[in-house]
Amino acid sequence: MSEYIGIKRKARRCYGFDEIALAPGRVTINPAEVDTTWKIDGKKFNVPILAAAMDGVVDVKFAIAMGKLGGIAVLNLEGVQTRYEDPDEVLEQLVRADPEKATEIIQSIYTKPIQEKLIEKRIRQIKDADVPAAVSAIPQRAERFGKIAQESGADIFVIQSTVSTVKHISKEYQALDIKRFAKSSKIPVIVGNCVGYEVAYELMVAGAAGILVGIGPGAACTTRGVLGIGVPQVTATVDCAAARDAFFKKTKKYIPIITDGGMRTGGDICKAFACGSDAVMVGSAFARAIEAPGRGYHWGMATPHANLPRGTRIHVGTTGTLEEILFGPARFDDGSQNLMGALQTSMGSVGASSIKEFQKTEIIIAPSIKTEGKIFQQVQRVGMGK
């Protein structure tokens, strides 16, 4: 797998979604008859697509709408929803900002302290609608916010940072003991993000109920440009799926992995599942929903960082309702809508009746998959040429 990139220095070849394709199966299945459900901590969900914990994507109303459709939307406990009693005014200011000033304004908006009473309020608002409440925080705030989240009735707690490891070294502050936190938590704890076999395995040993896979692939994320860190999502997913399978073989505990970021279309999502993912987390696809609080804009969780922002505000537009994006009918020809329909059709085409079977799909290296025969679409900027 490795090849020399210079004298005595080797590098491993890794792959992204645009470099692979799925081979059709010998048997095909009616798409309406495939099973797309997935489980975390024994709880089953009909939609294996999570909405990312980003302020341009998820607020209380969006989380409720997603929950009623059978999915999970993760609310960022460190965003505008928990800093402002009325976040709509702040969001309006943010989306109207000039591109040159956007990051500066985002940074200033996020200097307002987080209000713990708003954490409790937002979670209870979601729970009052009788849908799952999933919330997210960085490791440094996990202990305090995790306690509030559990007391407020949250169903899932997500610990999320640019790079998550069990072994974090710091003399400046006390690192979170993930093993102790997960063991003491009364609700499942999803931990991310990571991209490697060893780290994923260690997080599972520490008690994570789910693993987020992906460093820097998001549409609004600039981590790869700012830090130079990241592994393409195909390789990252395959490696972490191998860790999941090894952990299950040894312990009989199945810990789902969730590919997070880098998926723009239904085709990308299908490839993530075929590479071994149990569920996927997307941001920009949902930021285009009418229900999204970003009003057609999307920005990463690390964008507000005071000294080293690793995200930017992008305009994705508003293209349809959340239901259209998830279940159709699609009004666009680029694969950005009816994501569940795409997943079901792809599973049927390769002969997979469940996500577990879909994970065994034959994958081929096909760098020409997006360009072969598509010259007219490219020239006219339609379909796969957009």
Please characterize this protein's 3D structure:
It is a single chain. Helix 1 packs parallel to helix 4 (116-128), helix 2 packs antiparallel against helix 3 and helix 4 (116-128) packs across helix 5. This protein has helices at residues 60-68, 87-95, 102-109, 116-128, 139-152, 178-184, 197-205, 223-227, 233-251, 266-274, 284-287, 322-327, 339-350, 355-358, 375-380, and strands spanning 2-6, 9-12, 20-22, 38-40, 43-45, 49-51, 72-76, 134-137, 156-160, 189-194, 210-213, 257-260, 279-282, 297-299, 313-315, 363-365. The longest helix has 19 residues, at 233-251. The protein has a single domain, classed as TIM Barrel. The chain has 386 residues and is of the alpha/beta class.
